[in-house]
Q: What sequence folds into this?
């Protein structure tokens, strides 16, 4: 800003007396110096200054070492609306502009203004300089004032088409392009003028005043830019520049100029005082917000787990914040925001006890955040709160834990609410996060804080990229949202982040994590519009209304809906009524028999208006549906090129969601939900059954099925299912018809049969209780008892081939055996096994079957005779080491059916024997095979982890007919039709089966005991043996004399047997050792497995073993082979019993008499680390050496408390687990074996 007093002073000095001549000369010298300096402005001072600024700018851009504080905060555009932020590199830009202005100013004065004034007759340099300053000042500051007037809003320049900027911006908002250019230009202008003033004579009038004004104005504008105060910045510039312009225009009048300058001095003084009041607090505020973050460049990784700050980095190393600021202030703001919200975000651990609707049972973890601290309300996803029963707890950032109860789950959108008691929180200051759905805008910088990838606190950073994405399709038989937009951002979240808040820098939640794309880093977020409305209803304790017309819409762009028939007029109206929109909503799905279907809506209809309102957004659509439950809506849709008006009734959406669940053993049944009906486009009626295979008599895939009828009666809801079940007797087999929901339109109806056991398949009805958060259980006990089985007469198929007609009696002995295993004990892993067996005693109904078919003592066994009569059977005996079992049926159930028992041959099979094998095809027709025995070989099996039963110490016959390997059961007979061996299946390795012919002589001891009405309890050494060659025995130290003696013994095999394992707790443990080579038993050399048969009848054996190259004679006691598992304790979702034989075989020590046999995946036991194969030694510091002491200890545990359980793993590693008790879903119960009961077991 030029000072007109300077010219007047120069004129007065030139006209003085002689006494003033020296002074005048000195002044002339200074004037000439100033003229010289002005003439060479660009080569000297201005050039040096501009060069200095350019060097700073170049160094900044090239090395970014000038200030590590600012280099990370040059943010790019934030969104498509032109919102910008100020950054540290803007300082470099201001320096560059300042240097350019200095060059331009010097050029204007030297080459334009002064030559022009010289042409107009102004010859004096002082006059030229003064007039040039007037012209330059007037033009520059007039343009500055005009630009400032735009931001002040006066005069009204909006008519020019420029968007008016509000004046109440905050640090969290972006600024427009115009305002950023304005601030940068003004700061550069003031700095250029400040440099120009600096090079003048300090004695020139107004020197220090002008320096102060330029300095203060530049500081005020910089702070106004950082704070987004556009209107204030404009007012400051107007207050300074308007008087300057007037003074410049009036520069021809010195008197007027002096008056104006005095007035301007007063105004400038006031502005300076006010500016000081603004600048100082602003600098303090900005400094506090900016802080010092010199190390923020190390925090580029936005996926850093457990970090408290992450800063997103763009491709050009620029970063941005949503508050309109740059530099360290933005980072400090994010740090403050995150730290203030950590106590509001919780990690949620939850368990679904049952499979319900689309949600499988199991344990998982997620995230939630407090939205009402006073009432203890936590927002998370619907698939976390769950549509069915759930138990959950929240863990705060300081690891304080609190129980949660589910109070709301939305019928269609992926959100729900848990509640906790704030009075129980002792160590956490509860803070809530405000729901701000309006803040979801494209480009907004966000943070996602949650339990990502199982980490309790993980912070992911990104920016919103889409806010109008259609809902994703997440797959079949899983949760799928509808009738809403989804928000998209690239945060690359993983499991556990569900329910995490998407927060802005103000700490407000603008969306909630819902899903992610597996093949991209994109995550999808649910908007909070409906969430906020539902929360307000819950807080007001009013009914949450959710309406539906059973119709799904999707959003399509204008170019698409035009192809569907939308006219230009309709499009123009929608664009005018819904500014900013890019499309309209189109009907995607109309459920059969729903209100939309009844009203006449069709797929492809374009929604135009509802009740006279233009509807082109899901928010308004849902507001209208929720606000008109049980009422009608007038809808206008575009179909083709015509407009169609319909009236549609709005249903209560909550009424379409199941609130009851019927449990029948492991099967759960619910009314078909709107969620599934909508996904598969089927009528929202019927009963869906999960885990139906638990009561079906045939194996099926583990997926939900829709029940059509039970026992010939149609079922459309849970009430009808209960009525039918109350007519079915215990273990009565009744027909059922069902289909998979995806096959609704393919007419793929399946018929089968179910059998409901009152012991294994207890019936209970669960009803949702949102007050307690539990599902209240009501046992259904008024069920009819078992009905008497009517005898069935059966005719066996006839073999017409005369060559094998003698095998007809053998066919009459083969029956089909099916085994349903309701609980997994003794290492069993299969629920349904089926195979064939042979009757070995028709009078007593004894049937021999492979042990792989009847694998568990807790089994529900049925026998099918000739594919016609199905009768129940009981397990009577399982051989401890050989792959066979004996079951028994009641002969009176088959009436006069002529069954035959197989005749056991006394002749043992030998290699080279020609045999015939009778088996059954998959169509249950007899198959006869001719074969030759190739060899008699020992069964080779591998150990399993966890241990499960396997066949050991047995040899089986191998046949040369490869077709025999296709059959899991057969009877090998000689030429007379007598059975020499049973063709049985045995497990070799995991998922690998073997077959072989078991000599029938192995059946005789157990069969004779049962025929004497005794329980077979064969004695044995309880060791596992394996054959070795004599060569290997000689290498181990076998003497020549003993070798010659063995070779002189008549035998087809040159082998001995070595002890591989000694069973723990057996009497042989500690006497016999692993790797002992058995030479003789009771004085008889051991050459074959039959030589070990003495162990079955003798309590003590004299055994000679070769150990460490020396023979030792040992007295070894045999052990009775009793059924080890007689009691099973069901506790905390796990099954415990005494260690069974296979466990003892594979264990060198037995830490306890309590063994974990199975753990339900949806239980506290599983969640807290209990797994199959653990030994339990203590419960709450009480020793549990056996199953009885364990039963007493767990019965003393209180509900809803943690129990300390000391365990030892199968690898002998001790550990202490803490398991939560929840008797509502996992009660403690005890099963004991009872041969008198129909099931062989009973609860006590």
A:
């Amino acid at each position: 800003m030029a000072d007109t007093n300077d010219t007047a002073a120069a004129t007065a000095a030139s006209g003085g007396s002689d006494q003033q001549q020296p002074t005048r000369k000195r002044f002339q010298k200074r004037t000439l110096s100033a003229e010289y300096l002005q003439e060479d402005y660009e080569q000297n001072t201005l050039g040096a200054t501009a060069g200095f600024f350019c060097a700073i700018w170049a160094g900044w851009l090239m090395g970014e070492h000038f200030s590590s504080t600012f280099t990370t905060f040059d943010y790019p555009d934030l969104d498509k609306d032109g919102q910008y932020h100020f950054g540290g590199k803007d300082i470099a830009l201001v320096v560059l502009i300042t240097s350019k202005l200095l060059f331009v100013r010097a050029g204007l004065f030297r080459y334009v203004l002064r030559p022009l004034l010289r042409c107009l007759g102004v010859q004096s340099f002082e006059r030229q300089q003064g007039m040039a300053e007037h012209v330059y000042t007037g033009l520059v500051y007039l343009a500055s004032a005009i630009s400032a007037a735009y931001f002040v809003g006066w005069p009204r320049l909006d008519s020019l088409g420029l968007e008016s900027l509000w004046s109440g911006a905050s640090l969290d908002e972006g600024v427009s392009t115009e305002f950023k250019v304005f601030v940068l230009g003004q700061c550069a202008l003031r700095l250029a003028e400040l440099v120009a003033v600096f090079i003048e004579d300090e004695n020139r009038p107004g020197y220090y005043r002008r320096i102060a004004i330029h300095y203060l104005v530049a500081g005020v504008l910089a702070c106004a830019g950082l704070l987004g105060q556009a209107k204030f910045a404009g007012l400051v510039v107007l207050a300074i520049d308007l008087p300057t312009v007037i003074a410049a225009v009036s520069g021809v009048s010195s008197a007027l100029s002096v008056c104006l300058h005095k007035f301007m001095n007063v105004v400038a003084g006031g502005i300076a005082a006010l500016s000081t009041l603004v600048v100082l607090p602003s600098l303090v505020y900005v400094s506090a917000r900016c802080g010092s973050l010199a190390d923020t460049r190390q925090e580029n990784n936005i996926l850093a787990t457990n970090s408290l700050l992450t800063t997103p980095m763009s491709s050009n190393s620029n970063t941005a914040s949503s508050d309109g600021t740059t530099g360290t202030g933005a980072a400090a703001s994010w740090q403050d925001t995150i730290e203030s919200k950590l106590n509001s975000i919780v990690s949620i651990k939850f368990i679904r006890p049952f499979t319900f609707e689309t949600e499988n049972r199991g344990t998982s973890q997620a995230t939630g955040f407090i939205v009402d601290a006073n009432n203890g309300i936590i927002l998370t996803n619907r698939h976390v709160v769950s549509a069915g029963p759930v138990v959950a707890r929240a863990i705060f950032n300081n690891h304080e834990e609190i129980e949660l109860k589910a109070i709301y789950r939305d019928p269609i959108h992926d959100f729900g609410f848990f509640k906790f008691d704030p009075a129980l929180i002792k160590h956490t200051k509860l803070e809530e996060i405000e729901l701000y759905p309006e803040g979801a805008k494209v480009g907004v910088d966000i943070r996602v804080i949650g339990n990502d990838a199982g980490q309790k606190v993980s912070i992911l950073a990104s920016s919103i990229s889409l806010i109008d994405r259609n809902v994703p399709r997440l797959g079949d038989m899983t949760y799928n949202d509808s009738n809403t937009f989804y928000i998209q951002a690239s945060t690359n979240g993983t499991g556990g982040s569900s329910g995490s808040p998407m927060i802005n820098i103000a700490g407000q939640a603008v969306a909630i994590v819902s899903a992610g794309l597996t093949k991209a880093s994109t995550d999808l977020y649910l908007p909070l519009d409906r969430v906020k409305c539902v929360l307000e209803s819950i807080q007001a304790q009013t009914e949450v209304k959710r309406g539906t017309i059973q119709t799904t819409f999707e959003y399509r762009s204008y170019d698409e809906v035009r192809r569907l028939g939308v006219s230009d007029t309709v499009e123009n109206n929608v664009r005018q009524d819904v500014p900013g929109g890019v499309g309209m909503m189109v009907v995607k799905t109309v459920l059969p028999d729903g209100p939309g279907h009844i009203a006449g809506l069709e797929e492809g209809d374009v929604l135009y208006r509802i009740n006279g309102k233009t509807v082109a957004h899901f928010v308004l659509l849902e507001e209208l549906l929720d606000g008109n439950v049980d009422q009608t809506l007038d809808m206008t849709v575009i179909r083709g090129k015509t407009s169609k008006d319909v009236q549609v009734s709005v249903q209560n959406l909550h009424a379409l969601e199941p609130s009851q669940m019927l449990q029948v053993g492991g099967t759960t049944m619910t009314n078909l939900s709107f969620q599934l009906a909508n996904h598969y486009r089927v009528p929202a009626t019927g009963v869906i059954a999960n885990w139906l295979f638990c009561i079906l008599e045939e194996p099926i895939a583990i997926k939900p099925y829709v029940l059509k009828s039970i026992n010939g009666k149609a079922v459309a809801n849970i009430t009808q299912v209960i009525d039918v079940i109350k007519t079915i007797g215990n273990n009565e087999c009744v027909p059922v018809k069902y289909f998979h929901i995806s096959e609704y339109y393919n007419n793929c109806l399946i018929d089968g049969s179910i059998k409901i056991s009152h012991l294994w398949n207890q019936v209970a009805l669960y009803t949702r209780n949102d007050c307690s958060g539990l599902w209240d259980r009501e046992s259904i006990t008024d069920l009819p008892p078992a009905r008497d089985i009517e005898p069935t007469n059966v005719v066996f198929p006839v073999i017409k081939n005369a060559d094998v007609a003698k095998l007809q009696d053998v066919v009459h002995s083969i029956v089909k055996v099916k085994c349903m295993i309701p609980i997994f004990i003794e290492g069993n892993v299969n629920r349904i096994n089926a195979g064939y067996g042979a009757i070995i005693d028709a009078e007593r109904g004894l049937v021999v079957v492979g042990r792989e078919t009847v694998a568990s003592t807790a089994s529900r066994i049925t026998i099918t005779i000739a594919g016609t009569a199905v009768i129940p059977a009981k397990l009577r005996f399982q051989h401890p080491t050989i792959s066979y079992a004996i079951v028994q049926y009641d002969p009176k159930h088959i009436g006069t059916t002529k069954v035959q028992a197989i005749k056991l041959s006394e002749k043992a099979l030998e290699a080279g024997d020609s045999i015939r094998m009778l088996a059954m095809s998959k169509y249950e027709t007899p198959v006869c095979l001719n074969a030759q025995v190739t060899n008699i070989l020992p069964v080779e099996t591998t150990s399993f982890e966890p241990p499960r039963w396997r066949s050991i110490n047995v040899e089986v016959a191998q046949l040369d007919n490869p077709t025999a390997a296709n059959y899991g059961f057969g009877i090998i007979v000689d030429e007379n039709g007598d059975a020499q061996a049973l063709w049985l299946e045995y497990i070799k390795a995991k998922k690998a089966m073997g077959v072989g012919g078991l000599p029938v002589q192995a059946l005789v001891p157990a069969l004779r005991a049962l025929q004497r009405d005794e329980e077979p309890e064969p004695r044995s050494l309880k060791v596992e043996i394996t054959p070795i060659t004599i060569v290997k025995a000689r290498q181990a130290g076998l003497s020549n004399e003993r070798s010659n003696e063995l070779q002189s013994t008549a035998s087809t095999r040159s082998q001995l047997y070595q002890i591989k394992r000694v069973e723990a707790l057996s009497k042989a443990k500690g006497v016999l050792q692993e790797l002992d080579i058995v030479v003789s038993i009771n004085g008889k050399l051991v050459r074959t497995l039959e030589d070990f048969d003495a162990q079955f009848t003798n309590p003590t054996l004299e055994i000679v073993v070769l150990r460490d190259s020396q023979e030792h004679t040992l007295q070894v006691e045999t052990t009775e082979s009793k059924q080890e598992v007689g009691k099973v304790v069901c506790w905390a979702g796990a099954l415990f019993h005494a260690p069974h034989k296979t466990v003892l075989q594979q264990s060198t020590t037995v830490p306890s008499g309590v063994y974990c046999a199975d753990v339900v995946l949806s239980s506290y036991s599983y969640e807290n680390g209990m797994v199959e194969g653990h030994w339990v030694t203590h419960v709450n510091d009480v020793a549990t050496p056996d199953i009885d002491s364990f039963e007493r200890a767990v019965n003393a545990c209180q509900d809803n408390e943690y129990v300390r359980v000391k365990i030892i793993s199968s690898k002998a590693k001790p550990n202490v687990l803490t398991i939560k008790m929840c008797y509502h879903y996992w009660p403690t119960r005890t099963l004991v074996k009872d041969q008198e009961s129909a099931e062989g077991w009973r609860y006590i």
